[in-house]
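Running co-folding for iron/sulfur cluster.
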Amino acid sequence: MAELVVPPSGESVPFRFDAVVVGAGPAGSAAALALARAGRSVALVERGPFPGSKNVYGGVVYGRVLDPIVPRWWEEVPVERWVVRRSTMVVTGSQSLSVDYRTQTWGDAPYNGMTTLRARFDRWLADKAVEAGATLVTSTVATGLRRDARGRVAGVVTDRPDGELAASVVVACDGVNSFLAKEAGLLPRTAPEHLTLGVKEVLDLPPATIDERFGVGRTEGVDMEVLGGTGGIAGGGFLYTNTASVSVGAVLSLPQLAASGTRPEAVIAELKAHPTIEPLLRGGRLREYSAHLIPEGGYDTMPPLAADGLLVAGDAAALTLAAGIWLEGVNFAIASGWAAGQAAARALASGDCSAAGLASYRADLEGQFVLADHKRFRAAPGLVLSDRVQNRYPEMLCDLVEQLFTVANPEPKPGGWQVLRRTAARHGIPLRQLAADALRAARIFG
Amino acid sequence: MSADPSVARPLRAPVRSRHGGAVYPAQSFEERMAAVEFRVGTRPHITVDAAVCRSCTTKACVSACPADLFAPTADGGILFNYEQCFECGTCYQVCNGAGAITWTYPDGGHGVVFHHG
Ligand SMILES: Cc1cc2nc3c(=O)[nH]c(=O)nc-3n(C[C@H](O)[C@H](O)[C@H](O)COP(=O)(O)OP(=O)(O)OC[C@H]3O[C@@H](n4cnc5c(N)ncnc54)[C@H](O)[C@@H]3O)c2cc1C
Ligand code: SF4
Ligand code: SF4
């Protein structure tokens, strides 16, 4: 990988690039790749020792977003397993109800989702940017924005000696905590109500054991989401199969986690002990424990995406889509980074890197899934994180199905409506409320 | 990790299934964190002002920090060790005392290194 040579100390002329991209996550690497392909000089600054070393996700990457960026990406991407089964599970302490979907279509090119490890995936995408001519600068923190005499962003300050990098445009892809977007006044310093904490364990299991337990072939994988298993804290659980390990974890509302006094790893422990999940993970040895924040506020909490000399992409712009059974951030990061890099290249070509000159970035995102999906699901966080959806509906649903499937001879089977009415009453949910939420859900997701 | 006798660090109990048996072996938090690589820098990238913490009523950081780095002390303060930090940001986001936490990233190349993520 290309390395930046530090100028001899005492020299005060900063390195100059057309553009500086901060953060070699999926957003940053896509942005740097777009700029390099457009023939621009670009530095890709990453604080970790290698791209991916600071990054954590569930995770599944939905790769179709790579089609225009890396043709036939599936032939070279560091995939663990191709997801052919997707299961959404509603649980109480001792019950579970799953909707399990399987299709072999997802197991063939161009595929749908892949499990992959960030330490490998992020490095792969950063390598693409380097191959195209970007200069990757690892082990370097961008500690602040550099401004020109007129106050426009004109590069970054780094923690290297004499480490100022001058540029006409900066693309902030520095993730959920984005201190660059905060410094620019685009993001509030704290907003715990729009954040969740993701905690995760990677458990080693032999590939053959995974194949058997999850009913898949060696290259096939499973994606499971769990609702209701997070100890009363709004959020959800997840389980993904890698080649020789399983990732299991939880996503937890930050204020509710803090108020509950529950420790994050205790939530994972409870999930792992659930009677439906435990047999899948039995004997798994802890390989890695990790944690990372997720911006879940959606459309209404997004910062402005551009300022003079500055674009914001990926999690730094709160672009993760967290709407119920969808938790997608990597594809949104790649698409937004790619669009930001292209918009920056256009602005550089026209000689106008002001906010107005960079405005084609937002227009691009409006015209594709990135902002279309977010607009469509903008009301989802409120419903999905509500107490009813998080706690009361899972219990009610499991009870409902239990009554339908329990044979209580000599009593005759109850009618479906009767069971519904009885169960809703027992859980203190008026049928009116149920209908209202169903309608609301239909409006948001329909 | 900490030599302060006023700091209680309970050993986590083994996880049991509802059918009785231990599902996962008892694992101390130290063992859990030993699975993670940290390239510890010399500069504490996060500092905590225990004087502010003494008047904090929530102590939200104590239970929420996924790395369990905030230990309450007998005098109502907080003992903090930056060395095994995930750099996630949870603590400054949930902190209840203005100015209690000074939060930066570790110097380039230092801190947590995830190999799976
Ligand atoms: C538990 C969990 C589960 C998830 N599950 C999924 C999933 O299954 N599928 C999915 O698509 N998404 C998932 N996501 C969301 C996904 O991880 C993010 O949306 C995605 O990583 C965002 O990419 P990014 O490039 O914007 O930011 P990041 O991946 O966070 O990258 C930011 C980069 O910037 C670097 N950086 C930060 N500040 C600086 C600085 N000042 N100087 C230099 N470098 C800096 C960081 O080291 C990092 O490499 C999940 C997230 C979590 C936490
Ligand atoms: S929440 Fe903040 S003020 Fe309260 S104990 Fe923790 S660090 Fe101190
Ligand atoms: S950043 Fe995260 S891991 Fe580090 S001390 Fe704060 S809460 Fe704990």
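Result summary
Chain B has a mean pLDDT of 85.
The domain at 37-114 of chain B is CATH 3.30.70.20 (Alpha-Beta Plaits).
Job closed.
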